[in-house]
Write a structure and sequence with these properties.
64% of the residues lie in helices and 0% in strands. It contains four helices and no strands.
């Protein structure tokens, strides 16, 4: 029963956990094609992987894009694990 005061009035913790998924779902409505969805999925996966390794995402992406643009085709050299070394 709610009159005991043991329950919180809001569920902010749950809302904060779900928010990134709902924002991404809303943003995905505006992808213009299946190819756009594929690109966004790849980009978001790379960003989440970098975060899981504790990397600053912008620094990691700059490093990875520089490697790619310089012609480096060996992706193991710009994988998040290699960036940590």
């Amino acid at each position: 029963e709610l009159s005991y005061g043991r329950y919180t009035i809001d569920n902010m913790i749950a809302e904060h956990v779900v928010r990134p998924f709902t924002v991404n779902r809303k943003n995905s409505l505006f992808y213009s094609s299946d190819a756009g969805v594929d690109v966004a999925t790849t980009y978001l996966t790379v960003m989440e992987t970098a975060q899981m390794h504790g990397l600053e995402v912008s620094d990691y992406l700059i490093h990875a894009f520089r490697e790619i643009m310089s012609g480096n085709k060996d992706c193991s050299t710009y994988a998040p694990e290699a960036f940590l070394e």
